[in-house]
Amino acid sequence: MKFRFTPAAAAIGLAAGMLASGGAFAADTLKIAVAGPFTGPVTQYGAMVKEGVDTAIERINAAGGVLGQKLEAVQMDDGCEPKQGPVVANRVVNDDIHYVVGHVCSGATIAATNIYNNEGIVMVTPSATSPAVTDGKNYDTIFRTIGRDDQQGPAAAKFIIEKIKPKKVAVLHDKQSYGQGIATAVRDELKKAGVDIVMFEGINAGDSDYSAVITKLKTSDADFVYYGGYHPEMGLLLRQGAEQGLKARFMGPEGVGNPDINAIAGAAVEGMLVTLPADFTKDPANADIVKAFKDKGRNPSGAFQLTAYSALQSIAEGIKGVGKDDPIAVAKWLHANTVSTPIGKISWNKQGDLNDFKFEVFTWHKDGSKTAYE
């Protein structure tokens, strides 16, 4: 592996060497940065990731920690803003933290990864699904514990084609890396199957009035709408569509699968379809982990809690595997090994993407619950 030699990278190597040799300056705790939106409109996703990381750390620390050290989460807020990704990444470097769980949103993740890779810092995102996070980058220290949009998009399109069989489909997105990317993937797969795509249009994230696009949807006669983006905009589309008499059914990616959408959409959210990671809480092997979440008043069944738990666990297993706090060695170990996690036995390809990941389709309900589509 090749890394650019920088003073920060040298400091990382020195710190790792002192820790491995039992040097007097070894830290009392091994810090893991948790990078994501802890302010702004999608703070719920940052909270999901933090719950997963905290639960994993608590269980690992209770079992003795890693190499005799306790793990410590350091929360860092990027607000889901691409411009804040590098700010957080540089803070991680300056604070001499070697491992990151995050970032959460694809735009912020894409903006931060080059810094982490150049500085030899291991980053594992449990939620950023855009292919652009890893495609064509030749990164060595960047990983995911979630699938990509070019896995999720085709899965959604296959479901639409085989289960819904709509006459006319409108595809909307929020003009951002994540939303537009997955919407494009869905549109392209539907077009290959000969589905009539009557609209492909971006909306402005953060707007409060989507009546103009609702009018276009009604005029298009679309009976099914796919939206690529996050829950605040999807909630408004659902509510305002219902108010204007739009009859089309809506579907979105994991970014819309947030209980807070119910407060925005109200009863109009009933029947929304969403692709999410499989519900790993149903696996009997995860019973103790599920109990650990619930004992702390946390919900393990959200979109990112168990992928975040798995990201933290993977980092811990990598450190144990190499026997020292050496992020470059840990990255090599992760590329070469399989890790048993709550989301299954996972392994990574050369660019840090999972070799296998399954998305499933759920029906969302007005009480905030979801059920697997049957």
From TrEMBL:
GO biological process per UniProt: amino acid transport
Species whose genome carries this gene: Allopusillimonas soli
Residue span(s) of domain Leucine-binding protein: 29-365
Annotated InterPro entries: Leu-bd, Leu_Ile_Val-bd, Peripla_BP_I
Residues of the signal peptide: 1-26
Lineage top rank: taxon: Bacteria
Pfam families listed in its UniProt record: Peripla_BP_6
Record keywords, A-Z: Amino-acid transport, Signal, Transport
Family classification: Belongs to the leucine-binding protein family.
Protein name: Branched-chain amino acid ABC transporter substrate-binding protein
